[in-house]
Structures are given as C-alpha cells and as structure tokens.
C-alpha cells in the first residue's frame, strides 16, 4: 500500500455521528498523521530511503478520481503470535469491485518494481519469513570452481526459470532441487548468493531448529516471491534429514520429521514455483529419500582447492603481473587446502604478492591443511 500514499489528498476522516434516525454522517477533514521511516541500505554510500506511510487510524485518499477510505489497524504480539499483526482495509461507495482489484494490482506492481531491482534475504522464524536485508552483490566470476560446474548449474537454473509453461503442459510439478556438498570452506554458500544475484531471485533461508512439521509446511506455503530460492544450509545438521536404520524409524515428534520434510518439499500440498538448494559437508549421512531425483535434480561436489583454482584466486588478488613472476611457485606449492583458507592467506598478505605466493608460510601459519591432487 505504501507506493499509493503519494496520491493522498492529505485528509483524514473525523466522523461526527448524526441522529440515529438515519440522518447522514458529516465528515470533518483534518491532516493525516504520517510516520517517517528511514531505511538504510546494506551497501554504502547510498542515502537512506525516506518512506512516508499512514499511521494507525483512518485516512482518505484519491485513486483514479475516486475517494477511498483506508483504515490501518495494528494488533500487538501475543502468546499465540510472536510478532505484531497489521490489517489494512479499504472502503469505497459502490457495488463494483473492479476499482479495488485495480488498486491491489497497482500496489503489487509498484512493490514488485522496487524489490525486483535487488535480491532480498528472508530468514525463517517458525512459520514466518522475516526480511533481513539484501543479498550482497557478488559476481559469479568471484566464485572459483574447477571445470565448468558453475556455468552448468547457472545454465540449468536459467533453463528451469524459462520453462514454466512447458512444465505445466507436461503435467510435471514446477520445482527444481540442487544439492551442494563437499568440504567446508569450498564456496557453497558463496555460489548460492552469486546465483541468486545473477538470476534476480530472492533468497529464503530456512532454519529447521525448533520447528514442527506443520510450521515447515506453512512456511514454504508462505514463500511470496514468484522467483524464490529456498536454502537449507547444513541440512545434515537436521536429524530428520539423516539416514537411519530400520530400528531408528521412530521419528522425534519434538521437531521436523523426515516425512514432514519430504512432504514439505514435494508432497501433495506443497506449492510450485520455487527452487530448493541444500548444502552439506556430509553427503553420506543424508537419507536416500531426501536426495532421490525429483527432490535433488542436480548435485555439485566441492573439493579442496586445485592448482588451477589457487592460481585463479591468486590472480584475482594480485593481477597478471604477479602471476607471471610467482605463478610457478604457486603451482609448485598449491593446492594445499580449502579455498576459504587460501583466501584468508591472501587477505593477510594482500599487499605482498611474494608473501601471498609463499604457501609454505601458510603451512606454518595454519593449523589444519590438506594436500590434494592439483588436477582440475
């Protein structure tokens, strides 16, 4: 509703009731009390957005030369709901609903135009989504993976987003699932953020801790964005996702169960239109039902840094000239560990290409290292 307040007449209702014999009410115009909000974007140096919105109460405004009555009500949080509940009601004289339908459509289009410019992050709190700001702008070039895995996943995602009509025509549920698995610090979360920004999708991060089956079902039903990426980070940490023997089939009713998780992802009552990405450091512990085709359509494995990855990251920090001078030393010593540890080493020596290439020094500075094959 906020984008429409700019067309307000600046009046608010102050009714004076007439007699109860049917005499008409008289309305005395007064100034609308406005609430000033300042929202500071995540990325400076942008100026704060100044937003004027109607305060709680009754207001008049003009829309397409018709006078409408807006009422905003707010209910405080209670034991049944952890957050405040707000209600907007719009009233006009007449029998046709077309003007109200147009108002709602215009309000949604104005909202979509503002959020379409940047991907937003929402974090789950039980069955609600709480806005957490915007996805930090990150180019796909900054995520360095071996081979063409990154490009293949991006192409698959774009093909899915462009194929909604085909899915419906074929009678296939319009859903897509990905599993990113491998060693810690290899770039799984970085790839998710870069993909969301590349295709303009909003990121919904699910926290399964303390959640029940019904809350998870409602949560996924409440994904509002038409192009949404639902992220289950470290899914192996949820007991419901782990493989179990026949003697362990009794599920813990205190949290999300395996059946509840599966039904929320692709059950009869689950909704279409969003992409699911699960990340894990322990692929082997996941239940086979969770990773079967249809729930996971594409897997990408993340390993320790290869020589090509280490050299590409070194070039990104120090440039081609440093690669020409110290590249052989880099290739002779790399790969040594995860991409996260390499990046930390380069950050520590950001102004010293020689120190950055001396991975032997990193071996002395780091506690845990793993030497792997340098083939891409």
The H-and-E topology, N to C, reads as EEEEEEEEEHEEHHEHEHEHEEHHHHH
Gyration radius from CA atoms, angstroms: 27 Å
In CATH, what is the homologous superfamily of the largest domain? P-loop containing nucleotide triphosphate hydrolases
Low-confidence stretches: 1-44, 246-253, 367-376
Give the overall shape, derived from the CA principal axes: globular
Please give the order of strands in the largest beta sheet: 11-10-13-14-15-12-16
Counting helices, strands and paired strands, the structural category is alpha/beta
Major sheet details: 7 strands, mixed
| CATH architecture level-2 label of the largest domain | 3-Layer(aba) Sandwich
What is the count of DSSP helices, taking H or I runs of 4+ residues? 11
Mean pLDDT: 76
The count of domains is 3
Instruction: Tell me the distance between the termini.
Output: 52 Å
Let me know the number of strands.
16
Q: In percent terms, what proportion of residues is strand?
A: 15-25%
Classify the helix fraction into a percent range. 25-40%
CATH class of the largest domain: Alpha Beta
- By CATH, the topology of the largest domain is Rossmann fold
Explain what the structure shows:
With 376 residues, this protein is α/β, with parallel strands linked by helices. The chain folds into three domains: 115 residues, no CATH class; 169 residues, P-loop containing nucleotide triphosphate hydrolases (Rossmann fold, 3-Layer(aba) Sandwich); 59 residues, no CATH class. Helices cover 31% and strands 23% of the residues. The protein is built from eleven helices and 16 strands. It has a seven-stranded mixed sheet with strand order 11-10-13-14-15-12-16. Helix 5 runs parallel beside helix 6, helix 7 runs antiparallel to helix 8 and helix 7 runs parallel beside helix 9. The longest helix is centred in the N-terminal third of the chain and has 18 residues. The chain is globular. 26% of the residues are buried. The N terminus and C terminus are likely disordered.
């Amino acid at each position: 509703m906020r984008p429409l307040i700019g067309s307000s007449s600046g009046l608010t209702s102050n009714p004076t009731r007439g007699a109860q014999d049917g005499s008409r009410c008289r309305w005395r115009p007064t100034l609308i009390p406005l609430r000033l909000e300042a929202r500071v974007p995540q990325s400076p140096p942008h100026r704060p957005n100044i937003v004027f919105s109607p305060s709680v109460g009754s207001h008049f405004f003009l829309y397409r030369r018709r006078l409408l009555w807006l009422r905003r009500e707010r209910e405080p949080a209670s034991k049944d709901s952890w957050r405040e509940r707000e209600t907007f009601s719009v009233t006009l004289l007449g029998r046709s609903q077309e003007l109200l339908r147009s108002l709602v459509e215009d309000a949604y289009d104005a909202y979509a135009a503002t959020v379409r410019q940047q991907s937003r992050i929402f974090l789950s709190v039980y069955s609600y989504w709480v806005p957490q700001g915007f996805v930090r702008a990150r180019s796909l070039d900054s995520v360095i993976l071996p081979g063409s895995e990154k490009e293949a996943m991006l192409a698959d995602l774009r093909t899915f987003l462009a194929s909604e009509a085909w899915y419906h025509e074929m009678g296939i549920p319009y859903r897509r699932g990905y599993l990113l698995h491998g060693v810690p610090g290899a770039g799984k979360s970085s790839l998710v953020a870069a993909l969301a920004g590349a295709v303009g999708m909003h990121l919904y991060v699910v926290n399964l801790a303390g959640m029940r089956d019904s809350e998870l079902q409602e949560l996924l039903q409440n994904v509002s964005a038409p192009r949404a990426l639902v992220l289950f980070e470290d899914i192996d940490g949820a007991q419901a996702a782990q493989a179990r023997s026949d003697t362990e089939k009794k599920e813990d009713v205190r949290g999300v169960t395996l059946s509840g998780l599966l039904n929320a992802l692709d059950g009869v009552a689950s909704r279409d239109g969003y992409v699911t990405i699960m990340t894990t450091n322990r692929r082997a512990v996941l239940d086979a039902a969770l990773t079967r085709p249809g729930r996971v359509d594409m897997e990408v494995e993340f390993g320790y840094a290869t020589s090509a990855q280490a050299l590409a990251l070194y070039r990104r920090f120090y440039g081609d000239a440093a690669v020409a001078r110290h590249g052989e030393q880099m290739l002779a010593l790399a790969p040594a560990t995860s991409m996260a540890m390499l990046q930390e080493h380069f950050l520590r020596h950001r102004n010293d290409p020689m120190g950055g290439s001396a991975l032997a020094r990193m071996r002395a500075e780091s506690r845990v290292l793993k030497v792997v094959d340098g083939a891409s």
